[in-house]
Amino acid sequence: MKDYFTWTYPDIPENVAQELRQLNSSLVVVGIVGRSKCDQANKMQAFGMEPPMEHSARDGQVQCYYKPGTSSLLLHFETTYDEAILGQMIDACMEEPETPFDFDSFYEGMRCRFVRMVLLALHVCHIVVYVETGQTFDPTLVTVFQLLKFAREQHLMQFLPQMLRDGMPAARMGEKARLCAPRILFLFENFPREEAKTRECVSAYEFQTEDCIYELLRHHNIVTNSSSSSLVALPNNKQFVFFNAHEQLHPDKLMKAIECLNVAMYKPDVKEEEEDLEILELAPFEGFVKPFGVPADEKELEQQQYKKDHTVWHFLQRHVQDALSGCFDEGSFKQPPQPGQFHLLNIQEWHDWMATLHRLLVENAKNPNLETSNDEYRLYLQSFDESLNYEKKFWAHLCELGLKKGISAYKSAAPANYGSSTHQQLLAEATVAFEEEGRGPQAKAALAKLAAVCQKHWQDGRQQCEQPSLRSHPCTLPKSVPHEKHSSGVVHISSCNCGRTQGRREDPFSLRQANYEFYDHMAQMCNLCVKVKQYQFPVFEPSVSDYRAAAFEAAFPLLHTGKGGPPQDEDGEEEDEEEPEEEEEEEGQAPQPPVEEEEEQPNSANNGCSQPLSLTFGSDLNMSIAGFGASLNASQASSEQLTNSDQNGSTSSGTSSADTDNELVVQIQEKDKKEAGPPDTFSTSTSTTEYLPGLVHTVSDFGLLPLFPSWSLACVGPSSIYSHNTGLQEHFQSGFLSGANFLLPWDVQLRLVHAPKQQQQQQHHPHHQQQHPGKKQQRWKKQGDRLSLKIFVGMEYECSRGHRFMMCAPDRVLRGGADIERETCSKVVHNNMPLYYPCPCRSQNNYLAQLMRIHVVTPKAPVNIIVDPKVCVGKGKYTFTLGSIIPPRLSQSAYWIVRLPFVYQGDDVLIAPPDKFEPDDPMAGGYLLAGMFGVAETDPSMDLNEPGRMAGSAAGNFTRI
Predict the structure, then answer these.
(1) What would the mean pLDDT of 914-922 be, rounded to a whole number?
(2) What is the pLDDT, as a whole number, of residue 682?
(3) Per its UniProt record, what Pfam families does this chain match (predicted)?
(4) Helix (H) / strand (E) containing 157
(5) d(Cα 386, Cα 363) in Å, to the nearest integer?
(6) Do both 436 and 573 map to the same domain?
(7) Of 442, 459, 476, which closes a domain?
(8) Do residues 744 and 757 both lie within one domain?
(9) CA-only gyration radius of the chain, Å
(10) Same domain, 843 and 938
(11) I want to staple 714 with a disulfide (CB 3.0 to 4.6 A). Which of 11, 532, 559, 773 is the partner?
């Protein structure tokens, strides 16, 4: 049978009420608060009490305990600090998936509900016992005591005395509205395992904990010298900390497992135990070399008596007796207690007092909108929880300070006008300044406000235009001020078309500004540009005033391949099947001969757009491309058949096949047949209402022409102006780095062959049919003699600082005359050359140099060098060409310079240069296709030195600027 009664407030059993009435005004109320780990939230296990089996824990519930024959009524307060109730709160939060779990708000709500229940306990109890499941004092409890004192002084004392004046028991409480300054006791359910559980050790541990708690409560003014201003009281000469050392309550399974592991790991060796036993056997008698003391049986009796007396119930009853004897406050405070500060009530008076405070502090708080005439009480109901969330106020104050500091840092460093990158940098610096002060859960919202304020400050007349240039630099002009011309503030140093004069150029924002206007402006300032012979590229000539750019699908540029001309296969040859017949009909009209070389470069990449200079496929100049005329195919076929006959050993001039290595074959036509000129098989009608918005490329419409030329081809003088011993001099080509100002010699062997007569029967060579199916062949006779040519070629790169240099290989910069070997030029002629390469100039920034010019010094021989450069950019999407139907021929014994575009643009897609050079993929930014040079027979009827004349009937004109 239980020796105590238990019930749930307020339903007190009648038999218990009768026993409590017999106590009259000697009832001492003890409140039990704190932490628990069991499912029923029971903190009474140390007192030997427990709730009924059907009891279920609930927040705000009060379970009463009374042991007959005593004068103490124990109130067990179930709060959010009990693990069972805390689990219920967490489950309730998880049932609302639409609301994200906020730990800060959850913790603040849990603490506020705990403070409300402890506040009730401090006003209806004489003694409050705080139960701790741990082995040390929790310092966060000091914060709870501070909140309790704040709530009592700032809330309860504002409305409670006034609202309690009408009640009989409340009238006796006076202005303090509580039974007394309640004495606070601390119960620790478990004692540290590593400490010895003797009387001396337990008492020392209890005294040490008491000193710590007393200093903390004194330091934070929880306990003061006056009972009227103290939240709780502490006895001066009595123990107020108790450790349950002799029985284990709510054992920690994890700690028990760790202890078992330690025992297993540090188990003493059996051999050592045997040695100890051997030593003990040598002692003359039992207990040798041990100090004399109390006999073992007396010590055991003393220990048993200590265990019997050291119980929580005896510990509590000592403080209950102080309350009954009237010396409850003696020694607690330095100032003597005022009369009427301590009240002992009977059960009925206390029950009424408890019901009043429970209704005011707990029940009504569940309805914040409760109607009341007391303004202070209404404020308590509406803002009690908010007033206790001091962390939120603290974090809000810190965030406000950080916000002011961040805004000040942003505005003080912001220039008059700046772009988004500067704005982001300033915002990052302002964020760092904010984080020096701003902390807590509200920091995220404060940072969002900081970003909004800085954004508004930036957009308030300080925002730049930020229109990106063709080199990906933003415009730095104010966005609010209208401007006709953009400016990024970036200045490049570039050379003119002829390369003699260097000038400063603004960062271009339009294709015309990048590829035409700058060079046109430099041509007026350069003394050489005004004298050179300039090749005129075909451009758009409008016939109406409202002409417009042609519309393209940026994602499907290949849809326009069939509009302007016949498609091309991988080798660049036209797939028109009717052209061979046309060749037969026009055989007498001076076909333009192709050039063939008998030794192929196996390592040259062509990407199917241009062919290397080889034995069977004509020149590396891509002689089979559209625009050379119909006779080129027939001439090429005859040259291939002629070369094959050389390999079989048939010679007409007494030379062996070994002498034909590294030779080019040029067919010399009859003079009377050349006067008619090549047929214009590629004449197309160009549009006069729509122009090509970008550069000409291999799949652009033949009927569209650009508004302006993006390329330049100029003859800057005779071949004698270049000396291979000194290289390019500064007065002729400025800005070259030392040692990188030489052209590369290219030795080409020619074999001149007379063309056969028209009536000669055509024959098909089996091997040639295998290489070029569908093409009609002719047998040609070899005639003529050999001719040796020396051509000088230079691939010039230029960086934005104006540094210029030549390349001697796709991955090597020319370092001087010693780098020029016999086969050096073949590396740049027969291989793809990268469009961008790191500049060797010494600089902290890695400037990328761009392939801008191709230097060609033509030989003094009865042949013309043909140039047909193709630049592949945009990861192979576009292959840009000169745009001429017939590739231009360079005059003899002259210095020619091909200037490449500064910016490349497709139909309506700008192709920006790469940010950095990729050594693993040097062609990623673009490349010049191998096979851009060709050789053709000189037409004596055409004087290339005269302005306005050009070899070929549809080749365009040279004019003098």
Answers:
(1) 89
(2) 39
(3) Smg8_Smg9
(4) helix 157-163
(5) 18
(6) no
(7) 459
(8) yes
(9) 51
(10) yes
(11) 532
388 alpha carbon, distance to own chain's centre: 40
The answer to whether the CB of 816 falls within 8 A of the CB of 805 is no
Return d(Cα 43, Cα 396) in angstroms, integer: 37
Cβ–Cβ under 8 Å, residues 529 and 500: yes
Asked if residue 375 and residue 226 are part of one domain, the reply reads yes
What's the pLDDT score for residue 255? 76
Helices (H), 52-102: 83-94
Q: State how far the Cα of 933 lies from the Cα of 620, in Å rounded to an integer.
A: 6
Same structural domain for residues 374 and 437?
no
**Spatial distance between the Cα atoms of 491 and 484, rounded to a whole number of angstroms:** 19
- Separation between Cα atoms, residue 470 and residue 486, nearest integer Å: 11
Tell me, what's the pLDDT at 701? 83
Q: Tell me: do 372 and 397 sit in the same domain.
A: no
Q: Tens digit of pLDDT for each residue in 411-434?
A: 999 999 998 989 999 999 999 999
Within a domain: 267: no
Range of the domain at 121: 5-254+310-386
Residue 474 domain-assigned (yes or no) = no
Asked if residue 10 has a cis previous peptide bond (ω within 30° of 0), the answer is yes
> Which of 40, 35, 46 shows the shortest CA–CA distance to 8?
40
User: Considering the domain boundaries, does residue 737 fall inside one?
Assistant: yes
| Pair 481, 463: CB distance under 8 Å | no
Question: How far is it, in rounded angstroms, from Cα 595 to Cα 611?
Answer: 12
Question: How many folded domains does the chain comprise?
Answer: 3
Cβ proximity of 315 and 183 under 8 Å? no
Q: What single-letter amino acid sits at 695?
A: L
DSSP category for residue 153: I
| Residues 6+ positions from 582 with CB-CB distance below 8 Å | 630, 679, 681
Which pLDDT score is estimated for 276?
A: 63
Biggest distance spanned by C-alpha atoms of the chain? 149
Helix ranges (DSSP H) in 52-156: 83-94, 103-124, 140-151
| pLDDT confidence tier of residue 503, bands split at 50, 70 and 90 | very high
What is the Cα 843 distance to its own chain's centre? 28
Centre a 10 Å sphere on the Cβ of residue 280 and count the other Cβ atoms it contains: 10
What pLDDT score was predicted for residue 337? Answer: 60
Lowest model confidence (mean pLDDT) among 446-450, 548-552, 687-691, 840-844: 840-844
The whole-number average pLDDT for the span 674-678 is 41
Query: For the segment 931-956, what is each residue's pLDDT rounded down to a tens digit?
Result: 899 888 776 555 444 433 343 333 33
Question: Can you read off the two tokens belonging to residue 649?
Answer: 């050993």
Q: How would you classify the pairing of strands 502-506 and 933-937?
A: unpaired
Query: Mapped to the 3 state alphabet, what secondary structure does 251-285 carry?
Result: CCHHHHHHHHHHHHHCCCCHHHHHHHHHHHHCCCC
Confidence of residue 304 (pLDDT cuts 50, 70, 90): confident
Q: Are residues 455 and 583 in the same domain?
A: no
> Mean pLDDT score of the chain, rounded to an integer?
78
Q: Are strands 878-880 and 933-937 parallel, antiparallel or unpaired?
A: unpaired
Q: Report yes or no: 522 and 529 within 8 Å, Cβ to Cβ.
A: yes
Structure-block tokens of residue 559:
């849809």
Structure token pair of residue 84 = 């069972």
Q: Is the pLDDT of residue 117 over 60?
A: yes
The Cα 599–Cα 258 span in angstroms is 83
Out of 353, 386, 419, pick the residue that ends a domain: 386
pLDDT tens, position by position, 428-469 = 999 999 999 998 888 999 999 999 999 999 999 899 998 889
Structure tokens at 474: 């933003």
Task: For residue 122, tell me if it sits in a domain.
Answer: yes
- Residue 477 to residue 462: CA distance in whole angstroms: 10
pLDDT at 107 over 70: yes
For residue 289, the model assigns a pLDDT of: 58
- Angle formed by the axes of helices 443-459 and 420-435, nearest 10°: 150
128 Cβ contact partners less than 8 Å away, ≥ 6 residues apart: 30, 31, 33, 118, 121, 122, 182, 183, 184, 185, 232
CA distance 20 to 36: 28
Length of the chain: 961
CB 534 within 8 A of CB 958: yes
